[in-house]
Write a structure and sequence with these properties.
Elements (H helix, E strand, L loop, with lengths): L3 E5 L4 E4 L2 E4 L5 E5 L6 E3 L12 H14 L4 H16 L5 H15 L3 H9 L2 H12 L1
Antiparallel strand pairs: 1-4, 2-3, 2-5
Length: 134
Amino acid sequence: MGGLVLKLAPKERVLVNGAVIENGDRRSRLSIMTPDANILRLRDAIHPEDANTPVRRVCYAAQLILTGDSDPENANLPLLRHIEELSQVFLDADSRAALAEATGALISGQHYQCLKALRSLLPREDRLIATRTS
């Protein structure tokens, strides 16, 4: 069996191709068989007021494409530029790999994979910000 497997907690919400779906009272497991479906767990979503750091803003831009709120044709190039800007700050090998993965996914139209790779930078960004403010 292929595809994405979602394990949902009771009452957990997920966005599938623009439709919000809420799980019932029990844990469940869904297999998404459509390879290009746009899926976002709402608990993982970045809200506009939380897009207040460079990485969070880039993640939010990728998320808008994934949710269908931004047109990929118009949003991909600016997003690619923002990823390039992040590559000027995140110089360690792991971050570079995540940025390369995000870039490759964006170029191939895999917006969820792009967002996933970008989200992996959030803990690093949090540490950098904490270091600068202390």
